Amino acid sequence: MRQKIKIQQMRALIKTVNDFLGEYDPKFAGKIPNELCLGTGIQEGGNYSFIKQYTNNSIDGVGCSYWQVEPATHNDNWQSYLKYRPELAKKFLILAGERIIFEELPEENHEGFIKNYIENERYKSKTDDVLIHTLPYAIAHCRLWYYRQNFKMPEYFDLEEIANIWKTYYNTKDGAGTVEEFIHNYENYAK
Q1: How confident is residue 43, by pLDDT bands cut at 50, 70 and 90?
Q2: pLDDT given for residue 172 in this prediction
Q3: Of the residues 14, 32, 50, 132, which has the maximum number of CB atoms within 10 A of its CB?
Q4: By three-state DSSP, how is residue 55 classified?
Q5: Sign of the CA dihedral 58, 60, 62, 64?
Q6: Could you give the CA distance from residue 157 to residue 180 in angstroms, rounded to a whole number?
Q7: Across the chain, how many H-helices and E-strands are there?
Q8: pTM > 0.85
Q9: Residue 129, pLDDT score
Q10: How far is CA 150 from the centre of its chain?
Q11: Cα separation of 9 and 14, whole Å?
Q12: Quick check: 126 and 96 in contact, CB under 8 A?
């Protein structure tokens, strides 16, 4: 029998991660972005039951974590976005468990470390294990993907609008999920 994560715990963890990213830009944080990430995990991770996408009963699926972050998305977040924002990249590395490096390195060496880390594509080693086993890191990649898209976050919670954002920007028109399915899953699990 599968154990399910308590939704209140996941909601609190998502809030903590988004608040941490919100120190970089307040747009990362807030009730609506938190619920968007929560609903994405519900939908993509089968009500927080699956940490790896399975294809044809195989375990070498593409998406990792409850948020099904694909290696291509993970790497693009690093190469196209975090590479140019070392302050934000540092937060991602801390969420990936690299806090000790920044505690031991003198502050004036942090940016050089981050630049070297990205130029040598060391982030690629984080795609499977760290995304699967480090929930804050996976949440951050989910949130960053939405943050990078060209849409205005709703001011008030509207589940249908949240579901449409997920479908348009995360699942895409070619994805198997539907807005109705997202709404159904959120209503039945997010309480």
Answers
A1: very high
A2: 86
A3: 14
A4: strand
A5: positive
A6: 17
A7: 10, 0
A8: yes
A9: 80
A10: 17
A11: 9
A12: yes
Tokens in use for 142? 């989910």
N- to C-terminal Cα separation, the chain: 21
Distances (CA, A) of 69 to 23, 66, 107: 23, 8, 31
Q: Which residue's entry shows tokens 């468990």? A: 97
Share of the chain above pLDDT 70, in %: 93
Decide if pLDDT at 101 tops 80. yes
Task: Report the alpha-carbon distance of residue 51 to residue 165 in Å, rounded.
Answer: 22
Express the helix, strand and coil content of the chain in percent, nearest 5 each.
65, 5, 30
d(CA 151, CA 146): 9
How far apart CA 131 and CA 67 sit, in angstroms, is 9
Start-end of H helices in 23-150: 31-44, 71-76, 86-93, 99-104, 110-119, 129-133, 135-148
How far apart (Å, rounded) are the C-alpha atoms in residues 24 and 81?
A: 14
